[in-house]
Structure formats: C-alpha cells, structure tokens
Specification:
This protein has eleven helices and 14 strands. It has about 300 residues and is an alpha/beta fold. The protein folds into two domains: about 200 residues, 3-Layer(aba) Sandwich (Rossmann fold); about 80 residues, Alpha-Beta Plaits. The strands form three sheets. The protein has a six-stranded mixed beta sheet with strand order 6-7-8-3-9-10, with helices on both faces. It is elongated and about 75 Å long. The two termini are about 30 Å apart. The relative contact order is 0.14. Bound molecules: adenosine-5'-triphosphate. The site of adenosine-5'-triphosphate has 11 residues, from β2 and α1. GO terms for molecular function: ATP binding; ATP hydrolysis activity. This is ATP-binding cassette domain-containing protein. InterPro entries: AAA+_ATPase, ABC_transporter-like_ATP-bd, ABC_Transporter_VariousFunc, P-loop_NTPase.
Length: about 300
C-alpha cells in the first residue's frame, strides 16, 4: 500500500534520510518512533507529497505521491503543528474540505458532533490547542481518506478524547481498510494501536517489527535455584539480558516460550515465573543487542 524504497533526502549538506525503505500494508497501522531530529517529519512530508525525494521512490498503491493530486486526495495528514484559515469557522472549514476530498461525507460530519462537543460555528483558530486537534480529526475522518498520516496525533488531547479518537481511527482501519502511519515519541501509546513499529534513528530505520511476532519471540523469566546457578545453565540460549539479585536470576531470552521453559525446568529451579514484558522493554533489549545507545533512541 504505502511503499518507500531507498529514500534519500538532504537539505544542503545535511543528509537527513539515508536509503530508507518501509512498507505499510493496507488496513494496518504502522508506528514510526524516533528521537528528536531523527527524520520522522521529513519522511512524513514525503508520504504526503510535500517534499520531493533526492533519490528513491515513494508510492501509494504503486502510484508516486509527489505532484499527484489524485493520490493526495486520498490522504489525510494531521501534522503536529496544525494550520487552519484564520477567518474560517469549523463549518466553513468543512465546506473547504468537502471541495478538496471527493469522498467527503456530510452525514458523518453531523454524526460526529456527538463525539466532538464543539460549536461548529466557532472560528477554529480561536479554539484551544486540544480542541483544534479534535477539529483536525473530526474533519479528517469525514474526508473518508484511504490513508491517514498522523504526526504526534494525540498530543494535546485529554485521555478521554485520546481514546475516542483512536477508536474512530481504528474503526475505519477495520471497516474501510484505511491504512495509517503514525509518528510518535510515545511507545506506550503506539503499543495499543499499531500492527508494526519501525524505529528511525539518524535517518535510518534501525528496527522494524510486527508487534505480535515481537511479543511471542521474547520472554522474561524469574528463576531461583537452591544451590546457585548450575554450571552451563542456558549456555546454548539467546540471552538478551541477565541480572542477578541475591539468589533471584532475571533473564530475558529470545526463542519459543515452551522450549525455553523446558530448558529452565530441566535444571530443577525452585522458583520459575514468567513475567510480562512491555513493548518498551522488548525494544530496549533488542536495540541494546544491536549496539545502539538506547537512552538516546527511546523516550
Ligand atoms: N526544511 C528543512 N531545512 C533544513 N533542514 C531541515 C528541514 N527540515 C528538517 N530539517 C533537518 O532534518 C533533521 C530531521 O528533522 P525532522 O523534523 O524530520 O525530525 P523529527 O524526527 O520529526 O524530529 P522531532 O521529533 O523533533 O519532531 C533535523 O536535523 C532538521 O534540522
């Protein structure tokens, strides 16, 4: 659906994206994570046709995005820094959207007044930051896009509104097969909504994973033995992290959970617990293993 191949982009001498490739499947949610200055917004501006790449290709359904009004009319982009016409009310902005987006849906616009409790006669720029964000989603969802590109989408929204907005977006993913790319610093937020996550660092994707795969492939165990750790314990296992506090051994290992359990059990531990792993922990251990300075990548 969204395909970026070998994308390279620089501003003057500053190379921002280096030979970057990602593939976002139709009707899925792809989370783009990365520290400040990694290149997330620059990548997003290629996906929405605002920037022309120096090298590589950026396509949606195999059609180039740049200078392609037909493709752009299927994309809704909700940037971090919203822009609205200064004199327009919400209703007037909606009329403007209706002209740009061929699939605009007025019924939906009326229905969503139940979700977004803002007087549609008010001028958008006079609303609070969070209310403007609500308006961006309200209008964006009524545009009936095939692709949504969201930059720090729920920044400024209160927790109740965050849930409402995500539920509307995910409903469109499920029912209308909308494809979503969302950029965020917040891994916790992405964990609940994404199918895939890619980490961008210094203009490169350093890790890209399907979340279900990641969770089924890495496991955390708390183990204790009555007479210390046996010689050669889990020698042939891919251990990502190991700490010992007193007699308790905390292990994070990669592999099939049942096989790992079998191996641990065969050493006769007196304590064996499987502990839940957050996505943040998984990324930290994965990236740590790849030699990246984690603290600078994840927030
Ligand atoms: N129009 C521009 N002209 C020159 N340099 C730019 C331009 N846009 C971005 N850059 C540079 O590209 C790099 C990546 O910026 P970008 O905004 O893509 O990062 P980001 O990952 O979105 O960061 P943040 O999380 O802070 O929003 C930065 O070094 C930035 O200074």
């Amino acid at each position: 659906m969204i395909e970026v191949k070998n994308l390279t982009k620089g501003f003057g001498k500053n190379k921002v994206l280096h030979d970057l490739s990602i593939n976002v499947r139709k009707a899925s949610v792809y989370g783009l994570l990365g520290p400040n200055g990694a290149g997330k917004t620059t990548l997003i501006k290629h996906l929405t046709g605002l920037y022309r790449q120096d090298q590589g290709t950026v396509t949606i359904d195999h059609k180039p995005v740049y200078e392609n009004p037909e493709v752009k009319a299927q994309i809704v982009y909700i940037p971090d820094d919203l822009y609205f016409f200064s004199q327009y009310s919400i209703d007037e902005t909606a009329k403007f959207y209706a002209k740009i987006y061929p699939q605009w849906n007025w019924n939906r616009y009326e229905q969503l007044k139940q979700v977004f409790p803002i007087d549609s006669k008010r001028r958008v720029v006079k609303l609070s930051k969070g209310m403007q964000k609500q308006v961006a989603f309200w209008l964006g969802i009524c545009a009936m896009p095939r692709v949504m590109v969201l930059d720090e989408p729920v920044d400024g929204l209160d927790p109740v509104m965050r849930k409402k907005v995500w539920s509307l977006v995910l409903q469109d993913v499920a029912e209308r097969e909308v494809t979503v790319l969302v950029s965020s610093h917040n891994l916790r937020e992405l964990e609940d909504v994404c199918d895939h996550v890619g980490i961008l660092h210094n203009g490169k994707i350093v890790v890209e994973r399907e979340l279900d795969d990641m969770k089924s492939d890495i496991h955390k165990f708390q183990i204790a033995f009555s007479d210390g750790i046996p010689e050669g314990f889990l020698e042939d296992t891919h251990i990502l992290h190991k700490t010992q506090t007193g007699s308790i051994l905390l292990l994070i290992a990669r592999g099939d959970k049942d096989e790992l359990m079998q191996k641990v059990k065969s050493a006769n531990p007196v304590i064996l617990d499987v502990l839940p792993l957050t996505l943040e922990e998984i990324f930290i251990y994965e990236l740590g293993g790849m030699g990246y300075d984690i603290q600078n990548i994840l927030i």
